[in-house]
Amino acid sequence: MAIAFPIQRFYDIPISLSTCSPRCISGHSQAKGFAVPRRKALSLSLSLLLPTYILSASAALAQHSPVLREYVDSFDGYSFRYPSNWIQVRGAGADIFFRDPYVLDENISVEISSPSSSRYKTVQDLGSPQEAGKKVLKQYLTEFMSTRLGVRRESSILSTTSRVADDGKLYYQVEVNIKSYANNNELAVMPQERVVRMEWDRRYLSVLGVENNQLYELRLQVPENVFTEEQNDLRQVMDSFRVNKIAA
To answer: With 90 as the cut, is the pLDDT of residue 179 above it?
Structure first.
């Protein structure tokens, strides 16, 4: 961004130099004052400050706007973009799975319904976005069901929306929050010995689309405190999800 400065008149600014001249006599020196135009002084200051500003701005931009890489599965018929520094994890049970190498609770995956047991024509077969949101949340809670004593989950649907993407297809977007609580000593006899603590607090974002008579679901999992910082980037990932016709 260009910075415009008003034209300044030249002023004399006395600057004292403490360096000794070759003509110093008997170990004593006198600093000779000289004048520098204010415009030159301003230019010097800018030449020192601008590189620091540019580096700081570039670092901030790199931190908050990660590079997104496109993943295309032409065999199963979908594509999306994801942070380029995320790594693929095989054997995770999903059709594709990537996770953040540093925030292990942050990941993205795609689930596809079985072609033999589903005959979806449109995402509206799930009902309204609100009805789809209830089904998504129920599925998450079923997957996270625990047999441990003293474990309980709190959940809520944060938003349900629909949109028509640039491919002309209708997509549903669902956001839910799930918190997990557990006792630190579930086998304790006295109630005061069973202290409840939060295990995790996560945001789950799902994008639903239908193509090839199948239901496709892009899933994003992120800790709630991380989502606050990365939500703009994660929403770009959600908006990038597309389902595509499989060539016969």
So the answer is: yes
Q: What is the pLDDT of residue 19?
A: 45
Distance CA 19, CA 36 (A): 17
Domain ranges of the chain: 68-243
Under 8 Å between Cβ of 137 and 176: yes
Three-point CA angle 22, 28, 32, nearest 5°: 65
Q: Into which CATH architecture does domain 68-243 fall?
A: 3-Layer(aba) Sandwich (3.40)
Q: Measuring CA to CA, how many Å separate 96 from each of 71, 148, 161? A: 10, 29, 24
Whole-model pTM: value is 0.71
Order of strands, edge to edge, in the sheet holding 107-112? 87-88, 96-99, 107-112, 214-223, 196-211, 170-183, 152-164
Backbone angles phi, psi at 143, to 5 degrees: -65, -30
Average pLDDT over residues 19-36: 44
CA 120/CA 113 separation, integer angstroms: 9
Work out the pLDDT band at 148, boundaries 50, 70, 90: confident
Of residues 185, 170, 188, 176, the one with CA closest to residue 120: 170
| CA neighbor of 112 nearest in space, from 218, 240, 220, 246 | 218
pLDDT digits (tens, 9 = 90+) for 86-102: 999 998 889 999 999 99
Strand intervals (E) in 105-244: 107-112, 152-164, 170-183, 196-211, 214-223, 242-243
Q: What is the pLDDT of residue 38?
A: 55
